[in-house]
Amino acid sequence: MLRFYAQSFVSSSSTITQIVQILNRGEGLRDSHFKELGIALGEMMRECQKVDLPMTLAQLKRIKEVLDERTNVTNEGIRQMLHEVVNRLWDELDTHIFYQIESRKSFYYEEPEKFIGPDVSKAFPIATRELIDASKCYAIGRDTACVFHLMRALESGLGCMAKVFGVPSDHTNWQNIIEQIESKVRDLPKTKPKNWKEDQEFYSQAASHFMVLKDAWRNYTAHMRGRYDAEEALRVMDNVLGFMKKLATKLHE
């Protein structure tokens, strides 16, 4: 997605408009005006390049070249060129649509890695890609897509846990995977491996949580029965991320 800072665009446009007003009054431009105009033109050129306004950009470059040379240039010539660039800007902006990310959600789009945290990123790099997509989908209001990516991230965690117990997880539904893991966990007291009591508690709780997540969200999302709003998506995201952090204490991809 394009990152566009409106403040820079508005600021440079305001400076150009002020210069035009001075020229419209028949006043001459001082050196300070030329300096301000040069800065404004440079800022607007950068923004026009970002948002693909080629005709406006071409005129801005032409004006910048004239001002840099400062030869055979009149106030009336500058005024006409600035009027032209303003007209081009309005015409081209009329063909563009810009969407804004809500301020309270910008963190989820700009810095999803911080939201996810280093423990999860290190333990589950593949799942982290899904968590990043989920975070960005939430930021731009694609709430059902957010939950979809969260379920894909969870699938990576479930696969890691299945691997610990030798349970096949490729092309197998969650119900069968979880039930087989639970069976293996119940058998831990029979073989009593190292730290088996701690492991039994951890994996038993994890398997139960996976089952809850499957019934609450995964099945509905996978089979196109669930639609989510922003509040629900954030609740699912917090739940999944908290669970992934817990899984990261014992599991990794």
Q: Can you offer a commentary on this structure?
A:
The relative contact order is 0.09. Helix content is 75%, strand content 0%. The protein is built from 13 helices and no strands. It is an all-alpha fold. Helix 9 (143-164) packs parallel to helix 10 (174-186), helix 9 runs antiparallel to helix 12 and helix 9 (143-164) runs parallel beside helix 13. The chain is rod-shaped. The protein starts with 5 loop residues before the first helix and ends in a 6-residue tail after the last helix. The protein has 2 domains: 6-93, no CATH class; 103-247, no CATH class.
Q: Could you outline the blueprint of secondary structure elements for this entry?
A:
Layout: H1 6-24, H2 31-50, H3 54-69, H4 75-93, H5 106-110, H6 112-116, H7 118-123, H8 125-139, H9 143-164, H10 174-186, H11 188-191, H12 196-222, H13 230-247
Helix pairs in contact: 1-2, 1-4, 2-3, 3-4, 8-9, 8-13, 9-10, 9-12, 9-13, 10-12, 12-13
Which descriptors would you attach to this protein?
0% strand, mainly alpha, single chain, 253 residues
Low-pLDDT regions: none
Order of helices and strands: HHHHHHHHHHHHH
Q: Report the span from N to C terminus.
A: 29 Å
Strand content: under 5%
Helix fraction by DSSP (H/I, runs of at least 4) = over 70%
What's the number of extended β-strand segments? Answer: 0
How big is the Rg? 29 Å
- Helical run tally: 13
The 3D shape can be described as rod-shaped
The computed structural class is mainly alpha
Largest sheet: none
Count structural domains: 2
Mean pLDDT: 90
